[in-house]
Design a protein that fits this description.
single chain, 325 residues, alpha/beta, Rossmann fold, 2 domains, five-stranded parallel beta sheet, four-stranded parallel beta sheet, 12 helices, binds phosphoric acid mono(formamide)ester
């Protein structure tokens, strides 16, 4: 176990060794147990987390905020539009100044080509850890909660197959960051990874290459398919969600046209029947019900989406306790 995590930024889990990831998970399970037993665990008494949002959120905001309160500290919710950022506050100033008031700075900035750079610029100027609440490239706390949920369900997931697939959503063009963080992380736990998407919905090539390398090091397989149904066959984890065609077009109308071109890419009961008997269905939420996934699947016996959402709380508490104490 590697426990020297105090002061570390969490922008991508790629920056952490497998031992360090195991430490996050070990503490997450301990904190989940402590909460279930009503045991006090105020490891961050008098500490404050600044949470800066450039984009809306349900789970991320409320789980970080609840987590800080349960750890004995406080979280400030800051919407960028209520700040002076639009009037000139730079990333350097945000890092310098919020870093002097707080013990951690958490940021959600998902704008394509901008979010990750903004986060790294804030981190460069900050004296306290910067935690990525989702950017254009990564969603590390979602992926950490997801592997926690998979381990909770299966035990050691080594040798299990995980399908990370594109699915169609009509609500908005979603970031690629969840899929990318999963492609990087799941092979590190020995899971055989299947990435499935139509040709126009590629992920960043350097991320896919890193995921492939992670799989090679862990003696796991890594394959890319463009047939949605094939992704379901004999898989153990079906993680199908939408993302925009950001690597193909920056034109929102063309993006929508491409998304609508694949209107049969919905996770339904017929497709879920192709998965292994004890397979699970995962989605980070929000989901476009009956477009991205049928009600019968997301509310069905294979779905573990609420356990997955709950584990955001425990995984993030572990990260905060270890990096901000
Ligand atoms: N999964 C997730 O990040 O949810 P929110 O967008 O509601 O925070």
């Amino acid at each position: 176990m590697q426990t020297h995590l105090r002061g570390r930024d969490v922008i991508t889990l790629q920056d952490f060794t497998k031992d360090e990831l195991d430490t996050f998970l070990d503490v997450a399970f301990a904190l989940k147990r402590a909460r279930a037993l009503g045991e006090p665990h105020a490891y961050l008494r008098d500490k404050v987390l600044a949470m800066l949002f450039f984009f809306s959120s349900t789970r991320t905001r409320t789980s970080f905020e609840a987590g800080m309160a349960q750890l004995g500290g406080h979280a400030q919710f800051i919407e960028s539009k209520t700040t002076q950022i639009a009037h000139g506050d730079t990333a350097k100033e945000i890092g310098e100044i919020l870093g002097r008031y707080n013990d951690g700075i958490a940021i959600r900035q998902c704008d394509w080509g901008t979010g990750n750079k903004y986060m790294r610029d804030v981190a460069e100027a900050s004296r306290v850890p910067v935690l990525n609440m989702q950017c254009d490239v990564y969603h590390p706390h979602q992926a950490l909660a997801d592997i926690m949920t998979i381990i909770e369900h299966f035990g050691d997931p080594r040798g299990k197959t995980a399908t990370v697939s594109w699915a169609r959503a009509s609500s908005y063009s979603k970031p690629v960051s969840v899929a990318q963080s999963l492609v990087l992380l799941l092979p590190r736990f020995g899971m055989n990874l299947r990435l499935v998407h139509p040709p126009e919905f590629k992920l960043m090539p350097e991320i896919v290459e890193q995921g492939r390398e992670n799989a090679r090091k862990a003696h796991a397989s890594f394959e890319i398919l463009d047939d949605f149904d094939e992704g379901f066959k004999d898989t153990d984890v079906m993680y199908a969600k939408s993302w925009g065609a950001l690597l193909t077009t920056q034109d929102p109308e063309e993006d929508k046209r491409l998304i609508d071109k694949y209107d049969t890419w919905i996770t339904d009961e017929k497709r879920m029947a192709l998965t292994n008997d004890d397979a699970i269905y995962m989605h980070p939420l929000p989901a476009d019900r009956n477009v991205e996934v049928a009600d019968a699947v997301i509310d069905g016996p294979k779905s573990i989406v609420y356990d997955q959402a709950e584990n955001r709380l425990h995984a993030q508490k572990a990260v905060m306790a270890l990096t901000m104490s």
